[in-house]
Amino acid sequence: MTPELTVLTLAGLLQGLQFALVSVRANMELPAGKTMGPRDPDRLGKPIVEQVSPRTGRLFRAMNNHFEALIMFTLAVVVVTLGDKATGLSAACAWAFLAARIAYIPAYYFGLTPWRSIIWMFGFLATMLMLISALF
Fold first, then answer.
1. What percent of the chain is modeled with pLDDT above 90?
2. Alpha helices of 37-114 — where are they, by DSSP H?
3. Rounded to an integer, what distance in angstroms lies between the CA atom of residue 62 and that of residue 101?
4. Is the peptide bond before 3 cis (omega within 30 degrees of 0)?
5. Region 98-123: what's the mean pLDDT?
6. What is the pLDDT of residue 107?
7. Fewer CB within 10 Å, N side or C side of the chain?
8. Rounded CA gap, 92 and 122, in Å?
9. Which residues are CB-contacts of 58 (< 8 A; sequence separation ≥ 6)?
């Protein structure tokens, strides 16, 4: 397996870990009827993310941000892999993306401003560089 595919696999596992973390925190803070029910708007009153503590809300948003980042990163990995454009640069970018995504979670959780945004940009630029490198 290429380094890029290895990192994509690890990024997928990171998403699963974030999902578990958010689920545990939400279930600790809210009654089971809210977290285990169908989450219909008339039953909840407002979205679950608005009913949890600020830090758990940040974990929700960090998880959703990772879903969004994974779309672009997956695209980059597919292009590099199927285009046979994997290089040391694309591998380094992939690892940089994963490092940024791991660092992003505590940065978001603890509200580290401006570091959260800087870390996000680092991962985004690594993904964009992977895509650009596939063109050459």
1. 84
2. 41-44, 54-82, 88-109
3. 9
4. no
5. 98
6. 98
7. C
8. 12
9. 108, 109, 111
* Contacts of range 116-120, beta carbons closer than 8 Å, 24 or more positions apart: 120/65, 120/69
Q: Mutual orientation of helices 54-82 and 88-109 as an angle, nearest 10°?
A: 170
Structure token digits, residue 48: 């679950």
Instruction: Give me the residue label for tokens 């980059």.
Output: 76
Whole-number pLDDT of residue 113:
95
**pTM attached to this predicted model:** 0.93
- Here the tokens at position 58 are 């940040």
What does the block give as tokens for 86?
Answer: 């994997």
Backbone angles phi, psi at 72, to 5 degrees: -70, -40
Compute the distance between CA of residue 7 and CA of residue 78 in angstroms, rounded to an integer: 12
Scan for tokens 């949890």, then name that residue: 52
